[in-house]
Amino acid sequence: MSEDKVLDFDIDDVDGRLFMLDRELGGSVTASFSKRIDLSVPGTVTLDGEPVPHRVKDLRLSDGVSVLAVHVFGRLTVYGRDHALHVEGFTDTDGITMEPVDLTVRTRPRMAPQQEFARQPYPYLLADCGDIDITGHRLPVSYYREIVFGLRAEPYLAVQRPQHHGKTVISSRWAWSDTIAGWTWPGHESAPIVVEVYSDADEGELLVNGRSLGRRPVGEEHRFRTEFETTYEPGELLAIAYRDGVESGRDLLRTATGPVVLHAAPERPVITADVGDLAYLTFTLVGSAGTLHTAADRPVRVEVSGDGTLIGFGSADPATKERFDATEHHTYRGRALAVVKPTAPGTIRLIATAPDCDPVEVLVTVEKPAR
After folding, report:
1. Closest among 101, 47, 104, 50 to 81, alpha carbons compared
2. Distances 317 to 117, 121, 123, 150, 336 between C-alpha atoms, Å
3. How does residue 120 score in pLDDT terms, banded at 50, 70 and 90?
4. Per residue in 323-365, pLDDT tens?
């Protein structure tokens, strides 16, 4: 099995390090077998001499070997303690039964808050590291995961924010690179910038305004991602994926240009006056061609009338000081979301305004609930 005989476990981590790859691995410590295991032949796993629930999984990123996941969350509750893990009886796909293995599961010590953080109020409301933000917008890591699991054939472009170029990154295992799917960076013209390309193809090519920066290997052997370093220039950023030398997909980002336009759209134009049904209205700041403007954030004010009432309004800004029950909120990376509760069958009317933008109106029909 794994050369590391000590398996680290954080008793405060509900999910565990492989939860994002497979939800069945939540709350588990994991160790890799040296070969692929025959899943039809059960083995034995004990923790401190007692049988413990476990799974053997073949993960796409496990380099052709099987992974043993031992569910220990809730069983290990003391910080900084060692526990004996015994594994035996598993058989590989060649029919060879493994020798018994003894491992140690070590719970992490409890961490005291650092003095620097203890002296300052913590400004963040959100971790800003998920697949989907609180407005329902998908973030780059969700597209990466979609590619890893074979659910997306096209490549995906993500751009590291140029204001942090060259800085040392300190992150946890949950973190993703500081990227967004945008090519609008006013004030950073000619500045160095890093572009990430995600793909399950063999190669990825990056073009800036039609100029190729070359091809680089991508796909499973390269963890489905590659990077290009270039300088920012407004225009078009294009990624092309190649499989066996033949183009297999494209992804394109454009710079938002022209006057900023406030756009509003309901998730559904018709809802019901039923308990639990809500109207979700997305606000975006876009350029004249409809490209999302991620660098022109401003306050948006909403007014709701008719057969509905505003119950929430906000953005995905992880460190906002604004309230979520007010009628005004700043956009974050060009987006905000309002939630309206219907009060009776009829029509909900919402008017939104923002500085230097024309007002927008949205109508949502509220139907009688089906009985």
Report:
1. 104
2. 20, 17, 11, 31, 9
3. low
4. 999 999 999 999 999 999 999 999 999 999 999 999 999 999 9
Task: State residue 309 phi and psi, 5-degree precision.
Answer: -140, 140
What pairing do the DSSP bridges indicate for beta strands 270-272 and 360-367? parallel
Tally of CB atoms within 10 A around 343: 13
φ and ψ of 334, to 5 deg: 85, 10
Nearest to 87 by CA among 75, 103, 74: 103
pLDDT at 123: 80
Closest-CA residue to 356 (of 316, 315, 296, 304): 296
Percent of the chain at pLDDT > 70 equals: 91
Three-state SS string over the chain comes to CCCCCEEEECCCCCCCCCCCCCHHHCCEEEEECCCCECCCCCCEEEECCEECCEEEECCCCCCCCCEEEEECECCECCCCCEEEEEEECCEECCCCECCCEEEEEEECCCCCCCHHHHCCCCCCCCCCCCCECCCCCECHHHHHHHHHCCCCCCCEEEEECHHHCCCCCCCCCCCCCCEECCCCCCCCCCCEEEEEEECCCCEEEEEECCEEEEEEECCHHHCCEEEEEEECCCCEEEEEEEECCEEEEEEEEECCCCCCEEEEEECCCEEECCCCCCEEEEEEEECCCCCECCCCCCEEEEEEEECEEEEEEECCCCCCCCCCCCCEEECECCEEEEEEEECCCEEEEEEEECCCCCCEEEEEEEECCCC
Q: Which of 12, 121, 119 is closest to 76 using CA atoms? A: 12
Residue 47 near residue 69 (C-beta atoms within 8 A): no
Token pair in block for residue 190: 């000619």
CB 143 within 8 A of CB 189: no
Q: What is the pLDDT of residues 251-272, one digit of tens each?
A: 999 999 999 999 999 999 999 9
Distance of CA 161 to the CA centre of its chain: 16
Phi, psi of 23 (to 5 degrees): -65, -25
Closest to 263 (Cα-Cα) out of 128, 360, 163: 360
The amino acid that residue 345 corresponds to is: P
Q: Per the structure block, which two tokens stand in for 162?
A: 């140029």
